[in-house]
Specification:
The protein has 15 helices and 7 strands. The chain is of the alpha/beta class and 300 residues long. Strand 2 and strand 3 form a beta hairpin. The chain starts with a strand and ends with a helix.
Amino acid sequence: MSKVLMIFLDGVGIGQKDPEINPFFKYKFKLFSDFFGETPSLENQYLEKKGTYLFPVDPIMEVEGLPLSGTGQTSIFCGINAQKKIGQHFGPFPYSTLIPDIKEKNIFKEFLNRNKKVSFANAYPKVFFDYINSGKKRLSVTSLSCLLSGVQLYKAAELHRGKALSAEITNFRWVGKLNYKMPVIRPETAARRLLKMNDKNDFTLFEFFFSDHLGHGRLKDEMEYILDSLDRFLLYLLENVDSDTTLLICSDHGNLEDLSVKSHTLNPSMTIAAGKNAKSVSEKIKDLSQIKEVLLEVIN
């Protein structure tokens, strides 16, 4: 059985080979040093190792200005050039006129229409459900896609039982900031849980948005911990993805790779394909709007 495991990283591009501004060079990322043998840069945007491919993807797509999350994520998860459709980059939440596209074309619904089993791996705390139950609708493309498609949004109970993942991977903010009583886990443990979820589904998505927070200059005191957790989590996935799974790690725009500015960048989005069909996936995806259709081809 062919499966798709998708990891969405908010705000991760391929940047300059400069440890003063690029944390991928400042900190030792085992994902790059141990797995690929080198770190990607604007001078070296394509890497290949062990049938795994790292490559650039265009987040601008013929629209002037800095790419933003609302349009970038709509392009990824709905398979359209959202920024071109509305004539601008827009974010952080999706533009109102894009909501019908998200409702009808989001990747969860497309897999469900093909009678495939899907899962959004992220768990949400009670404060999030209080927010949406109050009638407020400023939601990310992923959570909005789930709500519009009837896909379950996991709660603290599933996270505590190891049936879902926290957005920051290890639960440390749930424990330290939200006062939930649950263990802080190792990134490798979180990765194993995600792979177990992948075994039970045709399409599984995990979203990590703290990379964009770091790029905007937030959470500086947690920088090393967050980056280390992400590094170990991704490395474990790449080293343990099974032969029936196509693993795609992608992003909506650059940001984290250039800490000299607190805005997004014009750099290409960093994308990694591993496992089954990795080579063909890496060859077909050139911009954000092509990601959904390529993944749907993989599952058929």
